[in-house]
Amino acid sequence: MGEVREAVRSRYARAAKQIDVLSASSSPGEGCCQADGPDCGCSGSYSTQELNEIGLSEAVSLGCGNPTMLARLEPGQVVLDLGSGAGLDVLLSARRVSPGGQAYGVDMTEEMLALANANKAKAGVTNATFLKGTIENVPLPDASVDVVISNCVINLAEDKSAVIKEAFRVLRPGGRLAVADMVELEPLAPDIKRSLDQWAGCISGTIPIDDYQAALVAAGFENPEFEIHATESMPGVDGKVGSAYIKARKP
């Protein structure tokens, strides 16, 4: 396992334990990202009603938005969440594609997979499946998914192009990508870009929107769209990152 991947795995293994504590003590609607530092743009993105329906709170999310809001899911569809963590977006998606649909989540961290399956049992959701794997090598067949979502995870990958190509591979023709992710808005200082801790914290692994768009187009996606909904700067550090909603379609 490479240094970047191990730094990410280790951080989110620890975060899974913190989330377990937070979710036990938080009420639905309380802010997300608590296990990973300050709010990163997603607090309040999820409605209290939908959180109540699955008996979870935003404390189980380490995301930077709500990709399920973008996805316009419909009954009968198959949806895949890249880097599904504690399972919030998968469980919400599973309810939206029911009846007849299926929601998959893929994650490389054993601790997160265990937490996600515990949350699945708590929510009583039967059409959700959590798979162990990496987002660069998804354990699903070609053209098997209608919608790919992700929440602040693609930036964590060392090879974003490989992740985007993999999303394209599993999507059916006409399928959609609808993700929330962090992007670089102003160049970050070189020492920050080299920091494994900042990479695992969704900062140094970010890339500019132009590079992200180019990777989507190179993979075959059409009409990529970007909407910045929150920005973040670090005191005393050059550069700025932002939370973006990103949409694209497979022809």
Q: How would you describe what is shown here?
A:
The structure is a single chain. With 251 residues, the protein is α/β, with parallel strands linked by helices. Helix content is 36%, strand content 24%. The chain has helices spanning 3-25, 48-54, 67-71, 88-97, 110-123, 160-170, 190-193, 196-200, 209-219; strands at 78-82, 102-107, 128-132, 145-151, 171-186, 222-232, 240-249. A seven-stranded mixed sheet has the order 3-2-1-4-5-7-6, sandwiched between helices. The longest helix has 23 residues, at 3-25. The protein is globular and about 45 Å long. The N and C termini lie far apart (34 Å). 50% of the residues are buried. Residues 21-42 have low confidence and may be disordered.
Mean pLDDT: 83
Order of helix and strand elements from N to C terminus: HHHEHEHEEHEHHHEE
Span of the ends, CA to CA: 34 Å
Largest sheet: 7 strands, mixed
Shape: globular
Level of helix content?
25-40%
Q: How many helices does DSSP assign?
A: 9
Which spans of ≥5 residues are poorly predicted at pLDDT below 50?
21-42
The radius of gyration is 17 Å
The SS-based structural class is alpha/beta
The proportion of strand residues reads 15-25%
Spatial ordering of strands, largest sheet: 3-2-1-4-5-7-6
Number of strands: 7
Provide keyphrases for this structure:
single chain, 7 strands, 36% helix
Gist of the model:
The protein has about 250 residues and is α/β, with parallel strands linked by helices.
